[in-house]
Amino acid sequence: MARVNRVAIIGLGLIGGSLGMALRRRRLAKTIVGYSRKPSTLRRAKQARAIDVGTTNLRAAVRDADLIVLATPVDAIVPFAKQVARYCRRGAILTDVGSTKVQIVRQLERSLPAYASFVGGHPIAGSERRGIEAASSDLFTGALYVVTPTPQTHRGALPKVIRFWKPLVKKVITMSPQNHDRLFAATSHLPHLVAACLAGAIPAQALSSAAPSFLEMTRLAKSDPELWDDIFLSNRREVIRALDRFNRQCHVLRKLLTGSRRAELRRFLANAKAKRDALHDS
Questions:
Q1: Are 221 and 198 in contact (CB under 8 A)?
Q2: What pairs with residue 146 in β-bridges?
Q3: 68-110 confidence digits (pLDDT tens)
Q4: This prediction's pTM
């Protein structure tokens, strides 16, 4: 596909930095401009070959960009988008990488001027690590990218965002913001909370002898609280529903254990195994 002339990446953490590195590696953008409030982050991003140009000036970052990617924490996406809309050129496309979609899409569709098109998106890739130091040009290899259009999404902007991401990921899928938040509350947000509960439940004296299964199950609890509290709260309705379903499963399991109901316990475990076996680990 033809390269994008000028891409601006707002936020150069794990996702933003990895996106810049992947674009440069595949030569999918003529110029990649990175924005960060911290000059030290811009220096590290240039050293990592994630950007061509770095600036702490938001106006300078976006004024000539064709595509602007908002790669900030979830709670900063809407405020940054509103600022960007004041500075970007007419016809520029804004998109994001936020892990929740309903609030972001709804607020930006109501508030952005007509000349700035917004398309919600979410690359399904990440790590418990954070920052430009954790970025990798391979982060999106084999990943899914979810795009979340609505009836208000600009028809010309949507295919451009899809074409932008297609060379970077394994597959692009489309769903509504509501379906996105419902699905990822169950498959992403809930596992982080379960890992946090499990890590919090271990007795202090057991930490030194934790089994490998405990370490594997609680890896997600190492994620940055300042990043994840915004995700949980912005999608709290669906996260609570997912927690309620999980709690019902725990309640059933407790009854089976309390009553020593071996046959039903085995069926419970077999059902869980069948669901997990149906998934592909990739």
A1: yes
A2: 122, 173
A3: 999 999 999 999 999 999 999 999 999 999 999 999 999 999 9
A4: 0.91
